[in-house]
Every structure is written in structure tokens, then in C-alpha cells.
Amino acid sequence: MRWLIPAAGLALVGCNVPSEFLQRMEAQAKYEYYETSEFWADGKAMRTPPEGTIPRERPVGSPGLGTGRVNGAFVTSNPVELNREVLELGQKKYNIVCSQCHGRLGDGNSVVAENMGLRLPPSLQQIADKPDGHFYAAINEGYGVMPSFSGELNTQERWAVVAYVRALQRARNTQQGGQQPLPQENR
């Protein structure tokens, strides 16, 4: 068994593989941005995408789905069809990603918020008048000291979190409107 590693090392050293063979991807012929090309009649290497194609970065569907904005204005309502599964997904993702700063109830009360020195996270209850697109854009792009969470949450998950935040806001407004508050252990 001891001889296996030295034998494998000798076998690799004994291989006479030219380095060009191992670096084919790096050394292949290709055009860089804005380079000229003899292949195309206009002499440009960069091509305009064919009409009707959609870049992979742009989601297909309702306007504002990927940004929370249409023509620069925040969308007013969630473009995702809301159902129990979406709200459950939103609750799960909110609890994992958002509740550490915004609190489990969206009221800004959390251990992280208590220890923040720069600026406390806003109570999501106090900004309930903002359109859905505002919350989506904050998750997608970041807001103030809050970073973007687009790497942690995909488009559907971001909208699900927005739906759950709205559910938290409605539940809080219902409580303040005369309903009995939740027992302490359920908060």
C-alpha cells in the first residue's frame, strides 16, 4: 500500500502531456468585447441579440416581477399568486433571513437590533403604507445598512417574504383593532 502513492506520482511525472492540451479552454480562439471581426459584414464581434430573445437575468412574467418596479415606480401589489404554500414559504424564509433584525413579528425587536450601533432596522409594522414593490426592492437591492438578499432568496422567495410581511402587518392591525393579543409564548 505504501508504494501506491509514489507509483502514482511517477506515473504522472512520466506523462508527457503538452501544456497546450491542458489549457485548451483558456487558449481557444475567441473575441473580446468591442473587438473587430472579419466574419461579420459590419466588422463587429459583439452582436445584437435576436429580436424576441430574453436575457437569462430578466425573469419572465408580470411586469415588475424581478425588480418590484414598473417604469420606475414601485408595484402596488404582489404579482405572485398568493396561496397557503406561498405564505408558508414566505414565513419560512422570513424567519431564516429577516427575523434576526426585524424580529419574528416584524416589529424591529430582536437581539441583533438591540446590538446595532448605526441604525436600528425599521419596524415593518410602521411602514405598512409602503407598496409591495418597496419591500421587494429592499430585499433585492438592499436598503440603508441592510444588504441585498438576492443571493439568498430567489425571485419567488422574495415575493413570498413580501406576502408574509403583509400577513404580519394585517395580523398586527387586527390585534390593535380590538382583538385579543397573542399569548406571550406564541409571540
Give structural notes.
The protein is an all-alpha fold. It has a domain at 69-178: Cytochrome Bc1 Complex, Chain D, domain 2 (Orthogonal Bundle), CATH 1.10.760.10. It contains seven helices and two strands, in the order H-H-H-E-E-H-H-H-H. The protein has helices at residues 4-14, 19-22, 24-27, 84-102, 111-114, 132-141, 155-176, and strands at 69-70, 73-74. A two-stranded antiparallel ribbon has the order 1-2.
Topology:
Elements: H1 4-14, H2 19-22, H3 24-27, E1 69-70, E2 73-74, H4 84-102, H5 111-114, H6 132-141, H7 155-176
Antiparallel strand pairs: 1-2
Helix pairs in contact: 4-7, 6-7
Question: What is the general shape?
Answer: extended
Radius of gyration: 26 Å
According to CATH, what is the topology of the domain at 69-178? Answer: Cytochrome Bc1 Complex, Chain D, domain 2
* Average pLDDT over all residues: 82
* Biggest beta sheet summary: 2 strands, antiparallel
Order of helices and strands: HHHEEHHHH
Number of strands: 2
Q: Tally the helices: what do you get?
A: 7
CATH architecture of the domain at 69-178: Orthogonal Bundle
- CATH class descriptor of the domain at 69-178: Mainly Alpha
Low-confidence sequence ranges: 178-187
The CATH homologous superfamily of the domain at 69-178 corresponds to Cytochrome c-like domain
| N-to-C CA distance | 61 Å
Task: Give the tags.
187 residues; mainly alpha; Cytochrome Bc1 Complex, Chain D, domain 2; two-stranded antiparallel sheet; 40% helix; disordered C terminus
